[in-house]
């Protein structure tokens, strides 16, 4: 996966780092075909206002172990919002796009834009979230989560491998801006790609391509203070700036200039604190 675009999508990353800690851990060897990484979240906002964290859409399924968010969350078309308050900790498992089908009884499309309670997928998960919340270190949390996943004895099918490779093809090549190009690169017809992505990714190929393009745009807008949006639009394969702005707003909820201002304002406020 080296060099591939893996959207983090954390809005206001600088502000977020002042509200909670986020640490990523690699999966056990047996889970590497399925899992990208584990992420451990801790926060202590005692005596402070709760913080709403926004995460931009991506293609990953995340299985989370939090007090009020224990379940499998599918890829969505809207930003994910989570309210962080008080004191707590938890862990999430970020799956490789295309790999979660092994843990479901139906297509990944059935959880797109929604979630499934943890106990619906893993009947033995009753006390797992509490065990995670009471864990004294990250590795204890990872162990608890991985034991639950491995108990399913997941198998990566040839079709799942093909889906994973198709997504990695998108992630590894910014020049792929249309489904027709992806079809040529993978050797699969557009109709076959549609079926494959519905079953294993939970999103249409066109949307998958757009997710990578616009997450890349968001990262650049947040990082670069003076950005030529017309040039950025062309770099991302858009024929005109207006089309890029429209797509960016539809995915993130902000126009590019609004998103840039949001990051600049939060950075200045954090410096004053």
UniProtKB/TrEMBL annotation:
Keywords: DNA-binding, Transcription, Transcription regulation. Residues 161-262 form the HTH araC/xylS-type domain. InterPro entries: AraC_XylS_family_regulators, DUF6597, Homeodomain-like_sf, HTH_AraC. SUPFAM superfamilies: Homeodomain-like (SSF46689). It comes from the Bacteria. One of its GO terms (molecular function) is sequence-specific DNA binding. The keyword DNA damage does not apply. The keyword Transcription regulation applies. This is AraC family transcriptional regulator.
């Amino acid at each position: 996966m080296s060099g591939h675009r893996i959207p983090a999508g954390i809005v206001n990353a600088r502000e977020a780092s002042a509200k909670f800690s986020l640490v990523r851990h690699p999966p056990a060897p047996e889970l590497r075909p399925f899992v990208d990484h584990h992420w451990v979240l801790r926060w202590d906002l005692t005596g402070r206002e709760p913080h709403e964290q926004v995460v931009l859409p991506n293609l990953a399924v995340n299985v989370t172990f939090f007090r009020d968010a224990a379940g499998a969350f599918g890829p969505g078309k809207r930003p994910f919002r989570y309210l962080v308050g008080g004191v707590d900790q938890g862990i999430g498992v970020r799956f490789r796009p295309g790999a979660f089908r092994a843990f479901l009884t139906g297509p990944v499309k059935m959880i797109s834009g929604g979630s499934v309670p943890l106990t619906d997928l893993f009947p033995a998960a009753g006390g797992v979230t509490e065990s995670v919340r009471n864990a004294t270190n990250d590795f204890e949390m990872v162990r608890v989560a991985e034991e639950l996943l491995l108990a399913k004895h997941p198998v990566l099918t040839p079709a799942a491998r093909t889906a994973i490779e198709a997504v990695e093809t998108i992630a590894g090549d910014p020049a792929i801006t249309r489904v027709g190009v992806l079809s040529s690169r993978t050797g699969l017809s557009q109709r076959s790609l549609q079926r494959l992505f519905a079953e294993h990714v939970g999103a249409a190929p066109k949307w998958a391509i757009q997710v990578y393009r616009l997450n890349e745009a968001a990262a650049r807008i947040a990082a670069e203070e003076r950005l030529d949006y017309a040039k950025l639009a062309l770099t991302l394969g858009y024929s005109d700036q207006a089309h890029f702005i429209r797509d960016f707003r539809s995915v993130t909820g902000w126009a590019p200039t609004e998103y840039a201002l949001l990051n600049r304002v939060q950075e200045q406020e954090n410096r004053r604190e």
